[in-house]
Design goal:
The protein has about 200 residues and is mainly β. The chain contains one helix and 18 strands. The chain folds into two domains: about 110 residues, Sandwich (Immunoglobulin-like); about 55 residues, no CATH class.
Amino acid sequence: MQLDIQDFFADFEVPPGASPVDPSALVYSYDDTVTPCVESISRLNGTTAGGTTVVLTGKGFVPNATTVLLNGIVCSTEYSQIGSYRGLHLCEWDLVECGGLGVTPTEITCLTNPWDYSDDAFHGDVTVNVPTGDAVVDGSVDWSYMNLWSSTTTWGGNDPPVSGDSVVVTYGEFIVLDVSPPSLYLLTLQGLSCSPRTWETWS
């Protein structure tokens, strides 16, 4: 996602009792060259278990002083921010890459933490906070937490169900059928919330 950042202008009124000045001197310019902004994000969704690597590019990021929130959850830019899933530190899960995290003035590499089920998991804000405030992020960019049927983290580290298995999807789970499931013996959905959206919608 590319952002088109332009200059914005705001007029200021002279306070009562102040000496008259040239009105043109009271025009404040917002300069995009000094405004932190996110120009691209590598993906728009990740598993509710956490452990998804996300790369954001842009400008104005501050090493050791930048916080990334994906739908309200901290995306870890350093090891100390990384949480656990099912009692196991995310870095101990297979296929989770905890190296290379960090912030440069133009790029952020972070690792998602587990979703806390506190609100809607879909289409939450992407927020990048630096000491001067929040970076500009295109309004069409958002983040969704979901579980892919094909992912082992969806099944507690085990392989996805095979033909003849019985599956129970508990309340609060967000599962996307990114592959055609096998012929199951039984599928139980608790607290059913089905969405007609296809996998291509989330890609």
